[in-house]
Amino acid sequence: MKIIKKINQLNKYISNVSNVGFVPTMGGLHKGHISLIKKSKNISGKTLVSIFVNPTQFDKKKDFLIYPRSLKKDLVKLKKAKVDFVFIPSANEIYFKKRKRKIVINKKYKILCSKFRKGHFEGVLDVIERFIKIINPKFIFFGEKDYQQFFLIKKYFSGKFKTKIILCKTIRDKNKIALSTRNQLLDKSEIKIASLIAKKLISFKSKIRHNIINSNKLNLIKNFINTNYKVKVDYLEIREKNKLSKRFKKNNFKIFIAYHINKIRLIDNF
Ligand code: AMP
Known about the structure:
Layout: E1 2-4, H1 7-14, E2 20-25, H2 31-43, E3 46-51, H3 61-66, H4 71-80, E4 85-87, H5 91-95, H6 112-116, H7 120-135, E5 139-143, H8 147-157, E6 164-168, H9 188-210, H10 218-228, E7 232-240, E8 253-261, E9 264-269
Parallel strand pairs: 1-4, 2-3, 2-5, 3-4, 5-6
Antiparallel strand pairs: 7-8, 8-9
């Protein structure tokens, strides 16, 4: 496994490789990340994982500062997963070149996290575009856990670059919580609450699947979560899966939630 910090070094290793699979991460690796790596190893020639806690996608400085970092452990996991290349650039390396045109997200997509986290997806799209230009991968892999991220990346880049954008399913713990680096910041009782919320929404989804009329109970569920679990819900919404519009049928929707437990913001979708 080659560990690479500089772009020119990276170019030497991968310029002749035509079928690179790229898995962008912010480190703090868990089985969710490993599932993306496995998918890449299945369909790409070589797999490249980046570890870069991208400062421009954090709307709050404190969130960036307390974001869990565990490089040593991450490298052990990546080696075990038989990754070919790990790219660990500095912020200077990535942002050395100024953008010609600012990333602007269409008003109609200023929904869900894009509404609540100002500048977040602009930062994500910026860094992913930079990575695609540097690496020119054949495939790039994203987790369904961050569905809106996948959705916007697909919208903005699927016609622009040759790179195929691949969605990988959400990996959950036994207690149904979606694995997330941020879960490390929760204590036992908070994990319990996150688990109850996930289970509640999984059951809500199956009720809607059974009869769409149940979707009218969305606000009841939101109030229940807000008051019984003492979390602050940013949004709980049902949206059509492919367009993220508000009109959906009983078999083509997703339930999206973002909430704060004791200042830690968690997102999920079902
Ligand atoms: P992050 O390090 O949080 O930026 O995540 C890197 C990639 O891993 C993103 O594409 C995420 O959507 C994906 N990911 C994070 N958690 C999970 C999970 N529980 N299951 C599947 N993919 C995940």
